[in-house]
TrEMBL record:
Heme binds at H119. One of its GO terms (molecular function) is oxygen binding. The lineage of its organism: Bacteria, Bacillati, Bacillota, Bacilli, Bacillales. Keywords: Heme, Iron, Metal-binding, Transport. It comes from Lentibacillus amyloliquefaciens. Belongs to the truncated hemoglobin family. Group II subfamily. This is Globin. Its cofactor is heme.
């Protein structure tokens, strides 16, 4: 259980979010199931993810300041997000959490929140 503050503060703030996103997109950029729905240049995608995760885990509201209300499901509707792609995304995030050395109980709390979000993003059945 998280005892005080936010997940963002507990894991070390933006430097840790930055590390997590860097490790995550290194994997996404080479994952055969994810390549079709991501741009070849992940720079802007990673930038937006850093802003979103900062806000999502209790840090500054940089995503809203930069992009407006998150509306994550709507923003993801143009992309075919299947259960298989959801699982691939979560696999990449799970490995990135390990590589970024995010410790318990925060690692589990982060992964659980992102798992719920990933389920919510699905919009296409597996083919």
């Amino acid at each position: 259980m998280i005892k005080h503050g936010t997940i963002y503060e507990a894991i070390g703030g933006f430097p840790t979010i930055n590390k997590l996103v860097t490790h995550f997109y290194k994997r996404v950029g080479s994952h055969p199931k994810l390549i079709p729905i991501f741009p070849a240049d992940l720079t802007e995608t990673a930038r937006k993810q850093r802003l979103f995760l900062t806000q999502f885990f209790g840090g500054p509201r940089w995503y809203t300041e930069d992009r407006g209300h998150p509306m994550m499901r709507r923003r993801h509707m143009p992309f075919e997000i299947t259960p298989e792609r959801r699982d691939a995304w979560l696999e990449c995030m799970d490995a990135a959490l390990t590589e970024a050395q995010i410790e318990e109980p925060y690692r589990t709390a982060i992964f659980e929140k992102l798992t719920m979000t990933a389920h919510h993003m699905m919009n296409t059945p597996d083919k």
